[in-house]
Amino acid sequence: MKISGFQKLTLLDFPGRTACTVFTHGCNLRCPFCHNAPLVTRKDDSEFTEEEFFNYISKRKGIIDGVAITGGEPLLHKDVFDFIARIHDLGFSVKLDTNGFFPSLLYDIIKSGNVSYIAMDIKNTPEKYGATTGIEGISIDNVYKSIDHIIHSGLEYEFRTTAVAEFHNPEDFTVIAKMIEGADVYYIQKFKDSGDLITEGLHPLGDEDMLKCAENARKVLNNVSLRGV
Predict the structure, then answer these.
(1) What is the C-alpha radius of gyration for the chain, rounded to an integer number of angstroms?
(2) What is the distance between the alpha carbons of residues 99 and 94, in angstroms, rounded to a whole number?
(3) Would you say residue 47 has pLDDT above 70?
(4) What b/e readout covers 37-69, taking b as 16+ CB neighbours within 10 angstroms?
(5) Are 81 and 87 in contact (CB under 8 A)?
(6) Which CATH superfamily is domain 5-227 in?
(7) In whole angstroms, what is the distance from residue 193 CA to residue 182 CA?
(8) Which of 9-13, 115-119, 196-200 has the highest mean predicted lDDT (pLDDT)?
(9) Segments making up each domain of the chain, as ranges
(10) What angle separates helix 141-151 from helix 103-112, to the nearest 10 degrees?
(11) Is the peptide bond before 72 cis (omega within 30 degrees of 0)?
(12) pLDDT surpassing 80 at residue 44
């Protein structure tokens, strides 16, 4: 398993846990607003090895109790299944971030019992998925399959959308909410320019529009929260 980045301590990435965060390289999407663009657009020149990672967490038992795996898109890497299992076998909880385009591997990971929490990005309404992911004409059939796997997983999970003024408006969020109807938790995140995006010159929605986004999503979902407002 290639590790492109490693944050040794986080209180934010894994709800309810003191954790570390592992970043994997590469993604099947090219979202213009990606906040981890170097993991998507640049060569992987990381020198952080899997064994160094396991040596670190083995010495931190009792200090950290979880590992968050994010990217890029972790499920591009077939060995992520064994990587997660090894973390779990050491006694740590695992959170997995995904864009939902690899439902078969996601299903296998869920059924393994080695993951505790899943966070999946819902990029936009079906009609806007191509523009929002940077892949025109993309099929989102696998996204719907992953949504179903997660909702019926019995695990802790969240769905989330990063709201960007150039791609989203408040009315979109009624449609997005219907895509995940029945979900327990949905977060709408205010876009923040990391300074290193795939496409420059993007903007967040204003706070008033963010509140309208949540109001529209609540027409369908019971538990909708905002981040960054």
Answers:
(1) 17
(2) 17
(3) no
(4) bbbbeeeeeeeeeeeebeeebeeeeeebebbbb
(5) no
(6) Aldolase class I (3.20.20.70)
(7) 31
(8) 115-119
(9) 5-227
(10) 10
(11) yes
(12) no
